[in-house]
Amino acid sequence: MNNDEIYEKEFLKPIIYWGSRTCLLAVLISFAPALYIYFAYGVIPKASEILQAFILVAPYAVVLQIVEPPSYFPILGVPGTYMSFLAGNISNVRVPCSAIAQNAAGVVEGSKEGSIISTIAIGISVIVNLIILGIGVFVGAQLLAAFPPVVNEALKYILPSVFGGVFGSFAMRDIKLAIISLIVCVILVATNIIPTTLIAPIGVVVTIYVGIKLTNKKMEA
Question: For a disulfide at 45, which of 20, 49, 88, 166, Cβ 3.0-4.6 Å?
Answer without folding.
Answer: 49
